[in-house]
Amino acid sequence: xxxxxxxxxxxxxxxxxxxxxxxxxxxxxxxxxxxxxxxxxxxxxxxxxxxxxxxxxxxxxxxxxxxxxxxxxxxxxxxxxxxxxxxxxxxxxxxxxxxxxxxxxxxxxxxxxxxxxxxxxxxxxxxxxxxxxxxxxxxxxxxxxxxxxxxxxxxxxxxxxxxxxxxxxxxxxxxxxxxxxxxxxxxxxxxxxxxxxxxxxxxxxxxxxxxxxxxxxxxxxxxxxxxxxxxxxxxxxxxxxxxxxxxxxxxxxxxxxxxxxxxxxxxxxxxxxxxxxxxxxxxxxxxxxxxxxxxxxxxxxxxxxxxxxxxxxxxxxxxxxxxxxxxxxxxxxxxxx
Length: 337
Description:
By secondary structure, the chain is α+β, with helices and mostly antiparallel strands. 15% of the residues lie in helices and 36% in strands. It folds into 2 domains: 4-218, TIM Barrel (Alpha-Beta Barrel); 223-336, Macroglobulin (MG2) domain (Immunoglobulin-like, Sandwich).
């Protein structure tokens, strides 16, 4: 079955909060960059979304939009995506955040923790995640890459480790990349991109939301990836929930291609290799490739003793002078006993 991939941005701002873009300028910039989907997440308001349907690119379906909001509080910033209504954030306290996340779920919204290790007060009040979540099943994704040059930031490493800690504790949480887009970027800026992976040839609002909710996406600094497990005429991909026995001795099929986004084509990428984990155990590492000048493929047969938990992949390499850094991070396939 053919799969289709769609680059999207899930964390963006306009003049309705602290961004410099008008709504139309943001959408035009997103289309120009190559995004197929966009979520507007202004601080503590969803007012800007009311303007989106009248923008020509949205009318023409050049880009699919969802509404959102970035809860901006003294104790953390939380992305709320596509809820049926705005849940009131003003009464949330560090010890009651679960109640409000649950309310977002009741409103059919998705919850993402934004930039959990950004510096806090007095530089950026509330940017650091200080909420005491009791049940991380209420969280759909953790933003492990935020803003530009995420490969250079210690905050990215901490957020990545934070996400892995939740996975290893049994929570089914995806990782996301947020451009946290406030204004036009300089030409030397790079950013993480979220790629949805779907079986549908046309992206719709429902497909966009479902892919985010189910973890059917990966994040990348540019290159695209196709990661599939094939076993007994069945295909499994990111976000699937399956029994361990259904993957044992299955074959991983992995393809990496150079970025298709013009703004990211000129950045140096070297010494690329693929990693696959079953929980915190590394079960495969490919040979290192000096460069990614064309399609790179790798096949690997899974062992017959997979542990319940998850299976996930990464691509690492040297990017713009940052050595041995994650280039692509895939969301898991979740394994049941």
